[in-house]
């Protein structure tokens, strides 16, 4: 086989690159890899919180970014937004049933990561 033919066959063996939307795992990893998303879920796992409570729990996050992240989490069905009827009026955010399922997966990743810390690295 000539060098050119070997390269052509080799190129065909490679999977074609996919956009994240075409691979749900990659799409979710990218989403959770965005700064703050996993931390917001972690804080909400302890119970519903208002925007200001989350901002206080996440030093360094701007109100605009927190709002954007909460909207993204809500759009993906991981967080639910509820109107608060008591004074002062406002909204609170909580982990949805779907979000709780993701948190269970993240908890397993944490267990795996902690166990992996004890494995000597090559």
Strands, count: 3
Query: What share of the residues lie within helices?
Result: 55-70%
Gyration radius, in Å: 21 Å
Largest sheet: 3 strands, antiparallel
Low-confidence stretches: 5-9
Distance between the termini: 38 Å
Structure description:
- The two termini are about 40 Å apart.
- Helix content is about 55%, strand content about 10%.
- The radius of gyration is 21 Å and the shape is globular.
- The chain is built from six helices and three strands, in the order αααβααββα.
- A hairpin with a 5-residue loop joins β2 (about 80-85) and β3.
- The chain has a three-stranded antiparallel β-sheet with strand order 1-3-2.
- It has about 120 residues and is mainly α.
Characteristic key phrases:
122 residues; three-stranded antiparallel beta sheet; single chain; globular; mainly alpha
List the helices and strands and how they pair.
Blueprint: H1 3-13, H2 24-33, H3 37-44, E1 49-50, H4 51-57, H5 63-75, E2 79-84, E3 90-95, H6 97-116
Provide a short characterization of the protein structure.
The chain is mainly alpha-helical and about 120 residues long. Helix content is about 55%, strand content about 10%.
């Amino acid at each position: 086989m000539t060098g050119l033919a070997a390269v052509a066959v080799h190129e065909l063996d490679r999977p074609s690159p996919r956009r994240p939307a075409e691979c749900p795992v990659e799409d979710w990893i990218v989403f959770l890899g965005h700064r703050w998303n996993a931390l917001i879920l972690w804080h909400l796992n302890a119970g519903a919180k208002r925007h200001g409570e989350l901002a206080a729990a996440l030093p360094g996050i701007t109100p605009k970014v927190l709002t954007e992240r909460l909207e993204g989490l809500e759009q993906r069905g991981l967080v639910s937004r509820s109107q608060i009827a008591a004074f002062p009026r406002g909204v609170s955010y909580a982990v949805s049933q779907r979000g709780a399922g993701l948190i269970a997966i993240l908890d397993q990743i944490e267990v795996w990561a902690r166990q992996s810390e004890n494995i000597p690295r090559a």
